[in-house]
Recover the amino acids of this structure.
């Protein structure tokens, strides 16, 4: 199976159930589709995502291996962490999904800082880190879940669940 077909299959795992929510047999107490349970039941979703992210899209020189490994790890972790169990609160769910999305951007920017050479891109990576951290803090504050001082100092963000 080609990389493109595997990628489309993984996207379908997310998109088709959302688009055809009425077809889902797993329902929450509210009667709405329980997407978190659906994802938990999806066959080896993490393995599918890991395989897709680990599949080279082009030949890469050996000196790029560390950067690509970090980027693959960041993207895989981001995709897995975005598969939340819906809470019934759209705003809380938005923050719960956007937080790992922003953390993925931060991790990719950090990889650029560790391995990149272009000064303009390195400055942009620094800006991405700062702005994504600020947006995470602002989103959490908007739903009444501000970061603790310890989490902010550690540059880690606890999950919204």
């Amino acid at each position: 199976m080609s990389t493109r077909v595997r990628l489309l299959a993984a996207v379908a795992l997310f998109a088709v159930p959302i688009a055809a929510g009425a077809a889902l047999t797993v329902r929450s107490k509210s009667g709405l589709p329980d997407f978190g349970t659906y994802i938990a039941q999806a066959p080896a979703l993490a393995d599918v995502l890991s395989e897709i992210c680990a599949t080279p899209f082009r030949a890469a020189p050996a000196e790029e291996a560390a950067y690509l490994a970090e980027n693959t790890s960041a993207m895989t972790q981001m995709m897995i962490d975005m598969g939340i169990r819906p809470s019934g609160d759209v705003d809380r769910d938005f923050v719960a999904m956007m937080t790992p999305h922003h953390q993925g951007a931060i991790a990719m920017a950090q990889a650029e800082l560790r391995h990149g050479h272009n000064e303009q891109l390195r400055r942009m990576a620094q800006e991405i880190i700062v702005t994504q951290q600020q947006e995470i803090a602002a989103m959490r504050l908007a739903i009444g879940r501000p970061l603790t001082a310890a989490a902010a100092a550690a540059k880690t963000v606890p999950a919204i669940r």
